[in-house]
Structure formats: C-alpha cells, structure tokens
Amino acid sequence: MPAQPPGGEAGRLRALIGWRIQEASTWPCKSPGRFNPLDHAVFQVVFGGILTVLIALEFGHALQYFFSRGRGIIQAKIVIVIALLAIARKVIVTDPFEAAPASVLALAALTLALGVTYWLMRERDDRRRTVAAGVKGAAPGPKAA
Fold first, then answer.
1. What does the pLDDT look like over 36-54, one tens digit per residue?
2. How far, in Å, CA of 108 to CA of 113, rounded?
C-alpha cells in the first residue's frame, strides 16, 4: 500500500492531480506513432484532459477555501464557475456532428442560464462594493462652529 500523502484529503487531491498531469505529459512519449496534435480527435482528447485538470484544480481551490474559512457554505459563484468549466469541456470534447440536436440545445441553454446567473451575481457584488466604497469615502459632515 503506498504511503498516504501529507495533508489528508487535500494532499490526496494534489497527488491525484500530479499523477494526472504526469500521465498526460508522458502519453505522447508512450505512443509516438499515434500522437498527431493536428488530428482533431487527438486535440479533443488532450484539451479535454487539460480542462479536466483545470476543473480539478478549481474544485480543489474551492474545497481549500471552504475548509480554511470554517464556514458551512461554499460561494455560489465558485460553483457556477466550475460548472461553466465543465460545460466548456463537454462542448469541446463532444463531436457536434455525432451529438443529438436536443443534447446540443440543452448544453446551450445550460450555458446561457449559468452565464446569466454568474453575470447577475457579479453585478450584485459590484453594486455592494460601490456602495461600501461610497460609504467609506463619504465626505465628512459640516463641522460645528
């Protein structure tokens, strides 16, 4: 049985991500005749693997934020960003000529809904920051004579 990496769950996640990156970087060397980055299928597989690692890193960052803050909630914006990354990966990996039209329409609708939700949340946060900055930077009232 291999030794457990330090850091509990976060350490195991880092080890898994490191192993996945190592596998992805040595895959072309293991099969040199089959690796052609200009081939569309190979590009989809490689880019899908890169996005999978990016999603895992973002998920790990969200968990690290969750455990370090000690709150019982994960920010919804982080979850929406991870979902958007997963959908982007799905769109890139899916062959549009082989996918069912209903599936493509569902991905488009889901992307639009998540994008609008993220935009509305960002607008709300921007307004809150503007109001908070206005209160902090407000001019002092008139002085008593």
1. 666 777 777 777 888 888 8
2. 9
